[in-house]
Amino acid sequence: MEIIRRGAEAIIYRGEWRGRKVVIKKRVSKKYRIKEIDEIIREQRTKREAMLMMAARAAGVGVPIIYDLRIKEKEIVMQYLDGERIKDVIDKRGDEWKKRVCIEIGRAIANMHKNNIIHGDITTSNMIWMNNKLYFIDFGLGMKSGEDEDRGVDLHLLMEAFKAAHEDERLFGWVIESYKENFDGAENVIKKVEEIAKRGRYMRRVS
Amino acid sequence: MICLGIEGTAHTIGIGIVAKEDEKCRVLANVSKMYKPEKGGIHPREAANHHVKQFPSILKKSIEKSGVAIEEIDVIAFSIGPGLGPCLRTAATAARSLALLLKKPIVGVNHCIAHLEIGRALTKCSDPVLLYVSGGNTQVIAFMAGRYRVFGETLDIGIGNCLDKFGREAGMPFPAGPIIERRAKEGRKYIPLPYSVKGMDVAFSGILTAAIHMLKKENIEDICYSLQETCFSMLTEITERAMAHTEKEEVLLGGGVACNKRLQEMVRIMAEERGGKFFCPPNEFLVDNGAMIAWTGLLMYESGMEMRIEETKVRQNFRTDEVEVKWR
Q: Which among A37, A175, B221, B319 could bridge B186 via Cys, Cβ 3.0 to 4.6 Å?
């Protein structure tokens, strides 16, 4: 089995499910914590992530299809998206395409936030472009929340991601414009983003 | 170069004298006294009074131990923040008096960063992620883009505070951490407690409330065991997250709660499992101490961060990422 990524809590690998190419996300056991805690945490998070993905889909946001949820193994079996990471392509295309994609990004985030879905790790490497459609992956740090603080943290991370990875400053502006157009509560969230930026502590490695 | 450092952010008043020899840190003296409230938690003014009373004797003791004459000291450093106002002002006043009297330069040191720098100096790590766990502070800190940045922290109370408050409810004296550690060793049954990790942050107040409620129903050993296992798993998890995010392979412990052997074990296993390295200085340098202030002050002074007396006002809410790190 081919490992795609080894995160802090899960391993992502490629596999096959009933003849389909799939991605399997497995939450691995940690030796440092006792079995009782380890089991509960991994099970809860596997379920929560799957639920968030389904809620995002219901909100009209592109996410991989979940084929199977293996609670005992702490695995989510999902659609393999044979597309390109937004991070890798957004700087290489023409302005018209860039703007269109940014509008899509803004709308998708607005739809999630409207439905109390916090992605938790919105970076351009967690967005895939496939068949002219935008998809979001990795809801591992996500949660259900209608708090502007949580929405703000979400958006702030995206801002940092754009700053760190993409030179074109217009990109994030287009995203925000579209976010405002698609979400009535946007102004309050944007105020929060400014406040969070001043705290100056959400500096993360963004890749 | 020799630096005398005064620590006084909370319950401990400490003086450390360190020298830099061949680019290495040599601790010449490290003396401290801890204020222990007779009942209840730490009272800032009482703690400050304690510091005032103890200062002359520990100053004398530290000079004697170090074997240097007071005139040989090149720099005076003190903990400028974060911490309790009355305690900070006591240490700052002592530092200013010494600096003026001896006509030596003065530098104010960020307490949290000092925990990290003394760990780097006394262990073999060079660019670690620090898990800093004490009474009031719980942070995961790492160096990035010219500053020490906080990657995760507590959203409410510090882990030490959580343990002490639980201990108080269970009738244990301050500090309760070591007693909880001993009791936990006899615990066998895990009682589920809320596990509260939010991204790279943690929260302890919910767990504390739940654990206090358990006091009436379960035996103390099992509660201590469950409390430790839950809180320390959370801390280890956010530390691992920070290591993955920053792509750093070293992990360092700091703060009084890091004296706990079970926490040390968990972080070490985590580091080993991901092919990283675990570092932990001796207990004397994990708890609040003057040597860490002296060493960090020395580094700051060498990099030109000397302060004028007017700039030495204490900063109770001094944040780790406000410090421009010129010595790295």
A: B221
